[in-house]
């Protein structure tokens, strides 16, 4: 039986579609980089256990779909979040400009 975490944190990853949110989540959870990923439909979930100073933390990482058609669904997952990671693609300036819209949504 694995030890139970003392603290649980929920992190939501948001941003435009096809900018690497799923690949970022996969990297954080599995310590692997995957440069291609199927389009996220709705929300995907991953978790990571972290031990610091003999305290066990669990980080839930929620990868949200960036398509506008899913935004009403993904808003539900903002509730209870401890942190939000706003993401963009450095090669696409419009994804950076859209961060203002994402921030307003939060």
Structural account:
It is built from four helices and four strands, in the order E-H-E-E-H-E-H-H. The chain has 106 residues and is an alpha/beta fold. It has a single domain, classed as Rossmann fold. The chain has a four-stranded mixed β-sheet, sandwiched between helices. The protein starts with 6 loop residues before the first strand and ends with a helix.
Helix and strand content put the structural class at alpha/beta
**Mean of residue pLDDT values:** 82
Helix percent band: 10-25%
**Tally of domains:** 1
- Largest beta sheet: strand ordering: 2-3-1-4
The CATH topology: Rossmann fold
- One letter per element, helices H and strands E, the order comes to EHEEHEHH
Percent of residues in beta strands?
A: 25-35%
Number of helices: 4
Distance between the termini: 37 Å
**CATH-assigned homologous superfamily:** P-loop containing nucleotide triphosphate hydrolases
Question: What does the overall shape look like?
Answer: globular
Known CATH architecture: 3-Layer(aba) Sandwich
Low-confidence stretches: none
What's the alpha carbon Rg, rounded to whole Å?
15 Å
Largest sheet: 4 strands, mixed
Strand tally is: 4
The CATH class name reads Alpha Beta
């Amino acid at each position: 039986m694995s030890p139970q975490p003392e603290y649980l944190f929920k992190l939501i990853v948001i941003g435009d579609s096809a900018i690497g949110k799923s690949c970022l989540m996969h990297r954080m959870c599995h310590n692997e980089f995957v440069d291609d990923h199927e389009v996220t439909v709705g929300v995907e979930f991953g978790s990571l256990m972290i031990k610091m100073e003999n305290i066990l933390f669990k980080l839930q990482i929620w990868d949200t779909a960036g398509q506008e058609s899913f935004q009403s669904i993904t808003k539900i997952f903002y509730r209870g979040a401890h942190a939000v990671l706003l993401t963009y693609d450095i090669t696409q300036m419009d994804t950076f400009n859209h961060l203002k819209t994402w921030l307003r949504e939060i």
